[in-house]
Design brief:
Strand content: 25-35%
Helix content: 25-40%
Distance between the termini: 35 Å
Number of helices: 12
Number of domains: 2
Mean pLDDT: 96
CATH topology of the largest domain: TIM Barrel
Number of strands: 26
CATH class of the largest domain: Alpha Beta
Radius of gyration: 23 Å
CATH superfamily of the largest domain: Glycosidases
Bound molecules: alpha-L-arabinofuranose
Largest sheet: 8 strands, parallel, barrel
Shape: globular
Length: about 500
């Protein structure tokens, strides 16, 4: 059997986890809002039309921040269309996704919904068709207490208290040719700077996220980051990164559906890792050029697996309300890769302070709904659930000695992907580990340095014989994790068996 060794040392740490690393994203896209979180008339709908079954599934994920309203949608959105009496709100052509937007849900309803799921809004402003004026008015509407035109408008709309939205995106994917109002880096950098200035004048407590690259494959990456940051470094707090595994930009995608190159697929998070490292270097380069003292961090505000729905999406008729777009049917292998991606984010917890699983309901989603029917968890729900519930405290920097493999697209891929968090308050260590090998189990020895008297309290294993099986409305619990007894501690050495192609959680607690 293959073997790996890992050292976890109490004194060898990366950073405290910012809980916003477990953020998510809801866009006015497809069935995310309408028949997703919102379905008046559904047997589970509450007084506002929000589905209580979906609320429960989201709450369990403990996602502390949810990005809204887009995505590509925001670059053509007029937020004023979605506030005030519902019967007066216009139906509009939505150009980003070629749909019709009924505007039944807008900012105020979404803020209400985030409270129901114990979360907060991360708001994006439209820098595609709009700019400085819209952005400052929106901050005034949302965050100013009262006594001005927009704050009083909010009060008249039934919200006497300001929403106090803290984190704001300065547009979305402005480097992308597909974006409504796409810009060159100098154009965007100048605009983002001026928008940031007025937004901060309205509310000095907000945090701002400037658009980085839509992916590491973009032709302007990483010059985009350098130029944009040279314009904005002193007025922003985060650079936004997006990455979807198997976005169809390379030859690997063409081959995947019929000839699954699983070994390459399971290493896709290494692209994400390199992406983060390059952006960190670029940020720090600009910091040096500017002789700046403050740090700019990363908001990885779109990440996931995305490739199953492309064919279906091409066949969807345009100009419908809530068409079934980007409805990925996730399988077990996707879930394991999502686990690897979470480990990558945790490994960069010193610089990645916000991250959003894109998205949350129906669109590229861990949670699916049937219109008028059930809601259920897709495979990718589970690794996110485990990490968001247990991955808190200090991230330990693991020293890993693993067997490696070469695949068609990657070389020297470690068979194990692993990270651990130490929660000082609870005196627990939570280890997350993936065995990327689809054929063989892996035996791992964790040397727990400085952690005397810790013992296993829980071992969760997510494994499945068929990597391409998933959950469906007919069989919603086909691929679920189970408790296991694969782990034991002896003299500060934890020995654990990671079954072939699996996501594993090993939870340890100090025994007094
Ligand atoms: O999440 C789906 C889309 O992916 C978003 O609207 C856009 O920002 C990205 O290209």
């Amino acid at each position: 059997m293959k073997k790996a060794k890992v050292i976890l040392d109490k004194d060898f740490t990366i950073s405290e986890v910012d809980k916003r690393i477990y953020g998510s994203f809801i866009e006015h896209l497809g069935r995310a809002i309408y028949t997703g979180i919102y379905e008046p008339g559904h047997p589970q709908a509450d007084e506002q039309g929000f589905r209580k079954d979906v609320i429960d599934l989201v709450k369990a994920l403990k996602t502390p921040i949810i990005r809204y309203p887009g995505g590509n949608f925001v670059s053509g959105y007029n937020w004023e269309d979605g506030v005030g009496p519902k019967e007066q709100r216009p139906k509009k052509l939505e150009l980003a996704w070629r749909s019709i937007e009924p505007n039944e849900v807008g900012i105020n309803e979404f803020v209400d919904w985030t409270k129901k799921v114990d979360s907060e809004v991360m708001m994006a402003v439209n820098l595609g068709t709009r700019g400085i004026d819209e952005a400052r008015n929106l901050v005034e509407y949302c965050n100013f207490p009262g006594g001005t035109f927009y704050s009083d408008l909010r009060r008249r709309h039934g919200y006497p208290e300001p929403h106090k939205i803290k984190v704001w995106n300065l547009g979305n994917e402005m480097d992308g040719e597909w974006q409504i109002g796409h810009k060159l880096p100098h154009e965007y950098g100048r605009l983002a700077r001026e928008v940031a200035k007025v937004m901060r004048q309205v509310d000095p407590n907000i945090e701002l996220v400037v658009c980085g690259s839509s992916g590491p494959g973009m032709p302007t990456f990483p010059e985009w980051e350098r130029i944009v940051l040279e314009h904005t470094y002193d007025v922003v707090d985060y650079v936004s990164l997006h990455y979807y595994a198997n976005f169809p930009s390379g030859p690997e995608f063409v081959e995947l559906p019929n000839n699954p190159d699983l070994a390459s697929f399971m290493a896709k998070n290494l692209d994400m890792d390199r992406f983060i490292k390059t952006v960190v270097s670029t940020i720090d380069y600009v910091k040096a050029v500017k002789r700046a003292k403050k740090d700019v961090h990363i908001s990885f505000d779109e990440w996931n697996v995305w490739y199953h729905s492309f064919e279906k999406d091409r066949k969807v008729e345009p100009w419908q309300i809530a068409p079934p777009l980007l409805e990925e049917d996730y399988n077990f292998a996707d879930a394991v890769l999502v686990g690897c991606m979470i480990i990558t984010l945790l490994r960069h917890a010193d610089r990645v302070k916000i991250a959003c699983l894109a998205q949350l309901v129906n669109v590229l989603a861990p949670i699916m709904t049937v219109k008028g029917g059930i809601s259920y968890r897709q495979t990718i729900y589970y690794p996110f659930l485990h990490a968001s519930n247990y991955g808190h405290g200090i991230v330990l920097n693991p020293k890993i000695d693993s067997p490696k493999y070469d695949s068609r697209l990657y070389t020297d891929v470690p068979v194990i992907e692993t990270i651990a968090t130490y929660n000082e308050e609870e005196d627990t260590i939570n280890i997350f580990a993936v065995n990327r090998d689809a054929k063989e189990d892996l035996l791992v020895e964790y040397n727990l340095k400085g952690f005397e008297k810790f013992n296993v309290i829980e071992n969760i294993v997510y494994e499945n014989d068929d990597p391409f099986a998933g959950n469906t409305p007919e069989n919603p619990d086909k691929v679920v994790p189970h408790l296991a007894y694969n782990a034991k501690v002896n003299n500060n050495i934890l020995e654990v068996l990671l079954p072939k192609l699996s996501w594993n959680v090993i939870r340890l607690k100090k025994i007094n």
